[in-house]
Predict the 3D structure of the following.
Amino acid sequence: MTEAWKRRLFALAALTVAGGALTYLSMGDLGENLVYYWSPTELHDAPNALQATVRLGGLVVPGTMNWDRDNSHVTFDVTDGNKTVSVDSSSNPPAMFREGIGVVVEGKLGGDGVFRSERVMVKHSNEYQAPEGDHQENWKSSIAGEE
Amino acid sequence: MEAGSAWMLTGPNGSGKSTMLRCMATSLKPHRGHILVDGTDLWENRQTLRAEIAYLGHELHVWDDLSPRQNLQAWNRLGRFEVDVDALLERVNLEPHRDHPVRAMSAGMKRRLGLARLLLKKPRLALLDEPFGALDPEGRELVLDVIRELRTSGTTIALATHLPRIGAQACTHGLALEAGQLLWAGTASGLLERLP
Amino acid sequence: MNVIRQTFEVLRKELLVEWRSPARVSGLFFFALAMLLMVAFASPTEGILRTQAGGTLWISLLLASTRSMDQSWSTEMEHGAAEGMLLWPVEPVAIYYGKALANTAILLAVTVAIFPLMVGLYDVPVRGDLSMLAAIAVMGCAALAAPGTLYGLITAQARGASVLLPLLMFPLVVPALLAASRGTMVVIEGDPMLQGSSWLSLLVAFNAIHWSLSGLFFGRVLEDG
Amino acid sequence: MPKWEHIAGLLGLITLIVGHYLGLFWAPPERMMGDVGRLFYVHVPVAMFAMLVFCVAFVGALGYLLTSRMEADWLNEAAIEVGVVMNVLLLMLGSIWGKPTWGVWWTWDPRLTSATVMLLTFVGVILLRQATQSPEKRATWSAVATVLAFVNVPVTYMSVKWWRSIHQMQSTPETVSEPMVFVFRVNLLAMALLMTWFIARRWRIAKHRAMAEAPAPLPPAPQVTS
């Protein structure tokens, strides 16, 4: 085998290994485990969930939201369709926060099963739609109330 | 250049002696033109031809923290040469210093180590850049001896020096360079006659 | 095969150099230790130290590794030995893997020395699996050494090498730093979400990418340098 | 000599003005986000072209590694600088968008983290270029550093799919309503034209610099006397 061919073979092998590793990153179980936030089901199933500061993500269950704007206090339930976790947050969520929307909250699960959080973030979907009816007016007034 | 011949390059500083040797050693890629070895391009085939070229330049290619013996052993193993390192050290008169780190040695001693390293390889072409620098008269004799010995074993030599009178004692041909141009080519003794 | 034998010889030579001048490894050790102490002095409470232990450990090692890569190539450049190996000829791939393996071993030695000290100084519990810790240490050190050895060669020849190497290396090793720190925390604090093996696989994938690509490009960098 | 890229640049500027007018005044506000949703027409094209421009830099790097032609190195240099500007813009716009929608300027989620790492790696390549004098060394080193930095670009793009992230997944024409898609495409076209202009201009600067620092050619070799 000539030098040039050895070189090409090595290049091929190196690229295969690197490509394989990238493929593994995309296909492997990493995506499921190394996540930015946990679902309520995963939080329920985790053996030692009580100790760690984690992020919890899901949808706000309609009818459970209780927002005391003056005292920056809000409670709501978060669900993934399977399990539900009650959240108690001591900070005001952003203006887009509403019932039925996706949220990510950061905090700790207490012994009483309530997730205490200091940060509520809203997760927007990848859908961009023109408003239907008076939705937009609501939104504008909520922004105005916030600022 | 026929096998066993020795070519001496002279010329003022900056005339291109070192650059030419570095190109021949495949340490530099020629910007223009080609160097042909047995009709094939040197740079294109550098991976195989490097095994047959030995080069002693301004850089000695040694590790400062290792002793001369460890240096030579490392190069010996890397090249898979089976040379008796201790005998080689004796040959270049480094035997008494063989276990001290290179860092502590004088410039002349280091040169001798560089020469020993050159001798590990059995090259077809040996390139020496200012081999007499930093050496005492005894050391210069040693270099001339080494050149003669290499020539008898069929090695071609190219040597750059600003001490042509010493170099001519072991060289067959002479070349004079100036500002990157070849001024004169002929025999080594012929070159000496033309020098002021 | 010739390349493997040459890799081994380069590695052997590197370790011999370290053995003859142990100042480099001990310097790295004290550098990393000083980092741990400085972070401790700068932290408001000891609780923070405990929760940050994994990150602090790997930041210390990362900073120490940039020093290490610098020195690894400066000894090589001092008398042109790197070029000497290229012309000898030693396969560039063998030079790279030999040096990268040696750098991994050196970092690993520092890690082994520094970890128990951190456990003591930061009052860190070790709840998790020690074999997992060993695997993360090996993979983490390898992940720092692979790009470091390549970029060390580049920056050793560029202006302002001591600043440039961290600037090039830091962003590149972010995934490895993240995985090694979190993985170490998992061993320290226990594993509430069973993430340990995932962090380890991320490290393995990172190593696979960088050990192969750096090896591929090293020859070109050495030849043109 | 007329420079073709100026035509692209001019068209790009016009399209940009039209696209922004459409985005700000003509398109309907987004159902959930209202007027803030109009950032969609800037943030997403900038994000797409930041990554695409880095792909161009990658092509330049590969081109240099395979052919050793300086033209490829100039392309690498041009695209990296343009890409870094786009990447900074991307992070700033994303941050501005994040505050009213998510509620935070910044959070260390996989997409945001990888986009930041992308910026830092390519800034590293620029610094490396500046620290190197020899054109050949600069070209080789920066090509190698570009390829290694580029590994992160697909990771950034895929991060929202591979990891659960607060950042939404890539939108498709199916997830965006009709008039919005149209306005988006106008802005995308504007960005494409502008990027062509920027890269071509920067490539020419690189070329002129290389010409200026190239050594004068050697005089012809005289006859040898012997």
In short: Chain D has a mean pLDDT of 88. DSSP finds seven helices and no strands in chain D.
